[in-house]
Amino acid sequence: MDIDPDRLDWAHLRSFLATAETASLSGAARKLGLTQPTLSRQIAALEQNLSVLLFERVGRGLELTDAGRELLAHVREMGNAAQKVALTAAAQRSDISGEVRITASDIYASHFLPKIVSEVRNRAPGLSIEIVATNDISDLMRREADIAIRNVRPEQPDLVARLVRHGRGRFYAATNYLNKRGRPKSLTDLAQHDWVAFGDPDRNVEYMNGLGIPLTREAYKTRSESGIVAWEMARTGLGVCAMDEIIGDQTDGMERVLEDLKIDFPIWLVTHREVHTSPRIRLVFDILAEAIAAN
């Protein structure tokens, strides 16, 4: 699709992007803080300027046309560029200073956050960052942290949550362990192996049973509340352990077991509603969202 830049209005493109992402005029209007008639007029104006139909109504929802899908890829790039411009500008403001506390699981805090915090410090040198590595669900309402990275969406109405990406976990065991015990060929085989528990073994059993792995509590010969410690025990050959595939695949001496077996999990970024009024928290929140989504 050939697009003449002189015919584009960013406000209209933002309305198109929000509508494409929500598949709803009302949802897009809420996201942008516009009235639905205003948003509809902006979409219509964009279609008129480009001489193409961007959406088709299907039932109560909207679906992109072929032209709309082609345009969406370009507009997403523009949106990402605009976001980076806003973050860069905010970081250069002299009043962006003070401390921001980020809480995440010990695994996430040790393997992923240091690099992201380095990016925060590069963009906003006036900020100081504290990482609170804990596997407990820290109470943001009691100011134990400013921003939390979690795998469960919070239910408190005073918190703001953004789903930034979906992660994927796999099951791993040390090569020396598998050489001795054999490599499982089925879920039943897998259940006969020793396991390393991260957290409560009973909850682990319940979750694994839900995946079709017929584990019992007796399978968990070792356990730890620390994800880092549990992973290190698995690395020494104490049994099978679940891990984010980004970490597991990069760990020497560890092998995936049952290649097709996987765990999909959400990654939520959570903060107080004051993210809308606190420049430093909003800046760090947006940088975290950008970095985690790109991971």
TrEMBL record:
Record keywords: DNA-binding, Transcription, Transcription regulation
InterPro entries reported in the protein's UniProt record: LysR-type_TF_proteobact-type, LysR_HTH_N, LysR_subst-bd, WH-like_DNA-bd_sf, WH_DNA-bd_sf
KW Transcription regulation (keyword) present: yes
Record domain HTH lysR-type: where: 8-65
GO molecular function annotation: DNA-binding transcription factor activity; sequence-specific DNA binding
Gene3D superfamilies noted in UniProt: 3.40.190.290, Winged helix-like DNA-binding domain superfamily/Winged helix DNA-binding domain (1.10.10.10)
One BP annotation, GO: DNA-templated transcription
PANTHER family attached to this UniProt entry: HTH-TYPE TRANSCRIPTIONAL REGULATOR, TRANSCRIPTIONAL REGULATORY PROTEIN
Family: Belongs to the LysR transcriptional regulatory family.
Name under which the protein is recorded: HTH-type transcriptional activator CmpR
Organism, as annotated: Octadecabacter ascidiaceicola
